[in-house]
Design a protein that fits this description.
- 2 copies of one chain form a homodimer.
- Helices cover 33% and strands 26% of the residues of chain A.
- Chain A is built from 11 helices and 14 strands.
- The first copy, chain A, has a 7-stranded parallel beta sheet with strand order 3-2-1-4-5-6-14, with helices on both faces. Chain A has a 4-stranded mixed beta sheet with strand order 8-9-10-11. A 3-stranded antiparallel beta sheet of chain A has the order 7-12-13, sandwiched between helices.
- In chain A, β4, α2 and β5 form a beta-alpha-beta unit.
- The longest helix of chain A has 21 residues.
- β13 of chain A pairs antiparallel with β13 of chain B.
Amino acid sequence: MQKIRIGIVGYGNLGRGVELALAKCPDMELAGIFTRRPPESVKPAFSQTKVLHIDDAAGMKDLIDVMILCGGSAKDLPEQGPYFAKLFNTVDSFDTHAKIPEYYKKVNESARQSGKISIISVGWDPGLFSINRLMTEAILPDGQTYTFWGKGVSQGHSDAIRRIEGVKDAKQYTIPIEEAVEKVRSGSNPRLTTREKHLRDCYVVAEEGADKERIEREIKTMPNYFADYETRVTFITEEEMKRDHSAMPHGGFVIRSGKTGNNEENTSIIEFSLKLDSNPEFTASVLAAYARAAWRLNQEGGSGARTVFDIPPAYLSPKSGEELRSELL
Amino acid sequence: MQKIRIGIVGYGNLGRGVELALAKCPDMELAGIFTRRPPESVKPAFSQTKVLHIDDAAGMKDLIDVMILCGGSAKDLPEQGPYFAKLFNTVDSFDTHAKIPEYYKKVNESARQSGKISIISVGWDPGLFSINRLMTEAILPDGQTYTFWGKGVSQGHSDAIRRIEGVKDAKQYTIPIEEAVEKVRSGSNPRLTTREKHLRDCYVVAEEGADKERIEREIKTMPNYFADYETRVTFITEEEMKRDHSAMPHGGFVIRSGKTGNNEENTSIIEFSLKLDSNPEFTASVLAAYARAAWRLNQEGGSGARTVFDIPPAYLSPKSGEELRSELL
């Protein structure tokens, strides 16, 4: 059986996660990592992995079935998504929610022209959480959906703290508030603002001699990011930061609470939850499964942009329809 | 906008659940209930619902877009599934796991001939649980999947108790064993037999003067059903049975625990859980959403049998692709 040949564009935590994830997929093989850095400066997880310059990708159209784009949503993907969709089937994790419609449109144009498939915004949110929001709302139209994130690091909030004068390093964990979660699980359909659902837990390394009281005040009063939330600030040393806060755990849950019956007398609670030791490795594993789907859809003649909403579950699995029906249905 | 016209075949708890579920779907309308009983003997939930004889269905091919088959898997569906697939798009909840491949084949032949779509084995298990088993295995190939059922009534086990001499009525609840659940949630990937995962809790009304010790012994030693399980037997009165055990709650969860990383050093836990006050009303709500998908797939020219594995999530929702991408992704 011919293996699906995968390329990885961008080698940060996510790209490395994809390299590791592919090692667990016997039906796929890694053709190479494409980087903007000098290729010899990149150290892949496996010594046999080829590292190439990103400019070499265009010449390898016949050697790669799906490109997994592992760049960031702010600066890399808005350019790389439409560019690579002109050349390859692609999968990416574009996650700037507000800009998804615009990004979809651009990638769709490229992929229609090239006759390739591009699955955008793949991962867990957007991604698996989105699928659960859609399916549970369709099944229980009379209800409420709640998404909680965490416990996990928010990169944007950590960066915001780092921009404060006197801050050397910072990590911000988003933590679901247990009381809110329990209310939702009880089926009482509470009205909850984001602030009532999450607490912001900040670990800060201050520069020597910096005014910690001012830093704490600036964090807690920062508009949009912290002012509206219950925010905890803990100052730690650089060693503690490295020792206790270098892992990348994350997780969260989507809960739909809906009513059925002649008088809405019955409640159904559907919950989908994730608890991840490594957010980038898990997201990468989702991307790898959707790369399989992208390749299959294109083999069937499909082209254009897709989201996780458009992909039949069977396309994610290496098993045949018969196997799936007899083993997993 | 033309509404999707739905027919219900069979009016037990599930059929009634579909009647109620459709009332929550503004894009669908109920054309009628089809029953083998004298139509005038059936009392629908809503007075305006039409009740017709099942033999009248064949003459209504142009008046119904999708038939939701609400009969049982043991006797009704093996006949009704292939029969109705010759006439209508259909959705059913066929749940005899071992016979799904054979049933799929027969329904597929009918639906291919008629040019209709039949989505079989829809509900939560088989159904939503199956989707989660498939997707989480595809995403985390290096891992284990665990399905727990309950707390909920097992009809088959309740019936088995009722066949014992001296038993007037019985209900058997399947209950997940908390200790096993916690082991799985911890990511330790334990080996667990069904017996280590579930406890069987039986409520029995004995005939007057019956030998309760013998009944309890016969239950606990019954091969296949109880002998291999931790089984609890409680004798109650007929009034208690009616007062405390007439609801139809159910639920359960699918947990995938998988490893990622260069040395399997990171664990991901994915959990999908259901807590249902009314098992038939929830299952019916799933059937209604998949009826929407059946109709759309057929509108696009599709024909033949499908399972939940073949249905893109977007087809379940009344919202457009644009709406889904901007609101739920």
